[in-house]
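Appendix B, Record 12. Input sequence as logged:
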Amino acid sequence: MTELAPPPQQCSILVVEDNSYLQHLLQTSLVTAGYDVITNSDGQGISKLIEQQTVDLILLDLILPNKSGKEVVKEVRTVSQVPIIILSAFADPDCLVECLALGADEFIAKPFSFNIMMARVEALLRRIEWNSVDDSQFRKHEIFVEMDNAKN
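Logged structural output:
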């Protein structure tokens, strides 16, 4: 088994999954890998949660009891560009394309390998983690900072 790199920083992952067994497995795997994990089982209140807490990535089931994962993606995209990985047993190509068009970043069909899921999580987090533009700028999610190098 390939050992995955530790998180580049303390990252927080929101797991939105209504299957309590799978939610527990995801949470345990992510915590063991060094991530902070927030869970939600119905997709309700995700936008508010994102505004109140730091969320670096979302793992999102498509089929939820109160709203669809597609609705959650639309809702999240109104307040944040946080990376979203869809986890779904419904792997129809048209559905996959629709989810990506709505703003999801990845789509993983269930059942899936936890190693592959973790590798995709890490790859997405590497891409968004303090992406250095050059020595005077850096970016994370929607935040862009330009350093003034002028000396007083």
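The beta strands are 12-16, 36-40, 57-61, 84-88, 106-109, 131-134, 137-140, 143-146.
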